[in-house]
Amino acid sequence: MKTFLTLAFVFLLAGMTQAAKWEWVDNSSTETGFALETLQGGVWVEVATVGANVTTFQDALSEVVGRVRAFIQLADGTRIYSTYSNTAALLNAPVNVTVK
Question: What was the pLDDT predicted at 20?
Fold first, then answer.
């Protein structure tokens, strides 16, 4: 079953910063973790990994094109990957936000 990814813009009040929030559905039961990739200059680059059963991630980017895939890490460090999630985009997030 394919993992479904959504990206949302988040404005963090405490730090008054903006971020991209990644959320996905965990359709696997045996994963070691999830690998998150962003499209940078036409090339997919792994930017983070999270542990098993984690379904959210937040980063400081305001524009993201991303995808996620589950992996199982073997004892020798080799990873076996699932298929990729859908590709999700968060473009042109607001730069100046006023909270009243």
Answer: 77
Q: In this model, does residue 54 exceed pLDDT 90?
A: yes
Query: DSSP label at 98?
Result: -
Structure tokens at 42: 């036409």
pLDDT for 36? 92
* Domain edges within the chain: 5-90
Buried-exposed string 4-42: b where 16+ CB fall within 10 A, e elsewhere: ebebebeeeeeeeebbbbbebeeebeebebbbbbbeeee
Q: Give the number of other Cβ atoms within 10 Å of residue 62's Cβ.
A: 16
Instruction: For residues 65 and 16, give the distance between their C-alpha atoms in angstroms, rounded to a whole number.
Output: 23
- Look at residue 74 and tell me whether its pLDDT is greater than 60: yes
Query: Could you tell me which CATH number the domain at 5-90 has?
Result: 2.60.40.10
pTM of the model as a whole: 0.78
